[in-house]
Specification:
By secondary structure, the protein is α+β, with helices and mostly antiparallel strands. The protein is built from two helices and three strands; from the N terminus they run αβββα. 53% of the residues lie in helices and 17% in strands. The protein is elongated. 3% of the residues are buried.
């Protein structure tokens, strides 16, 4: 592999590491989170919206009613959870890309070993 290709891989790793740093910052925030999703449903057409919390369970999901007074607080917590989980998923993808690029750099830096055929006695 040429030095130019190795330099491009190094540049790619630097950019991915910068993005990974941003994602780690998101994951390390002190926001209060709720591992659930907020659903808005209208029980009848033109009726006011009712809010439910969809909580994942091993058997499926469970919906819990959310009072109107606490909807905004719950929305902030579920949004923080969504941002965290998406950041962690992207973090995993970026780590795989970094590993692949580093392996290419390593294989590009390795010298080829030429083995000569042995003499038959």
């Amino acid at each position: 592999m040429t030095r130019l290709k190795i330099a491009k891989h190094r540049q790619e790793v630097r950019a991915l590491k910068a993005r990974r740093g941003v994602l780690e910052h998101i994951a390390m925030q002190h926001n209060e989170m709720m591992a659930a999703y907020l659903l808005e449903r209208r029980l009848r057409p033109k009726a006011p919206a009712a809010h439910y919390l969809s909580v994942p369970t091993p058997q499926g999901s469970r919906h819990l009613y959310v009072r109107k007074a606490v909807v905004e607080a719950v929305r902030r917590q579920t949004d923080a959870w969504r941002e965290f989980s998406q950041a962690m998923a992207e973090w995993v993808r970026i780590n795989k890309k970094i590993e692949a690029a580093l392996r290419q750099i390593g294989s590009g830096r390795c010298r080829k070993i030429e083995l000569k055929a042995r003499k038959v006695r």
